[in-house]
Automatic annotation (TrEMBL):
PANTHER family: GLYCINE CLEAVAGE SYSTEM TRANSCRIPTIONAL ACTIVATOR (PTHR30537:SF26), HTH-TYPE TRANSCRIPTIONAL REGULATOR (PTHR30537). It comes from the Bacteria. GO terms for biological process: DNA-templated transcription. One of its GO terms (molecular function) is sequence-specific DNA binding. The lineage of its organism: Bacteria, Pseudomonadati, Pseudomonadota, Gammaproteobacteria, Enterobacterales. Pfam families: LysR_substrate. Keywords: DNA-binding. It comes from Serratia rubidaea (Serratia marinorubra). This is DNA-binding transcriptional activator GcvA. Residues 21-95 form the LysR substrate-binding domain. InterPro entries: LysR-type_TF_proteobact-type (IPR058163), LysR_subst-bd (IPR005119). Belongs to the LysR transcriptional regulatory family.
Length: 100
């Protein structure tokens, strides 16, 4: 299954159009994979919880890092420091891939 990122040709080291359903959002491709409709290619951060819970399985040992990378960013804020840091810490904890 393909999403709008179009990483399958790079992952498979092939060119041209590949068969399979095409979704305009990664989450839709992942929902289809969760429903047993095929194999999706996704960022580990998007599927870490489903992998850990056994709802999804990694079907290939190979992985790839595609630039540009994603970064957790925030705007300089005038929110009180404790509130801002609590949200930031939650995001960092939630998106951490340690132990996955």
């Amino acid at each position: 299954m393909h999403d709008s990122q179009g990483h399958w040709p790079l992952f498979l080291r092939t060119g041209g159009k590949l068969p399979g359903a095409v979704f305009n959002q990664t989450t839709l491709a992942l929902d289809a994979a969760l429903a047993g409709q095929g194999i999706a290619l996704a960022c580990r951060a998007f599927v870490a919880g489903d992998l850990k819970a056994g709802r999804l399985v990694q079907v290939a040992e190979e992985s790839m890092i595609k630039e540009p990378s994603y970064f957790l960013v925030r705007k300089r804020s005038s929110l009180p420091r404790a509130q801002r840091d609590a949200v930031w810490d939650w995001c960092v904890d939630r998106l951490s891939l340690a132990g996955v």
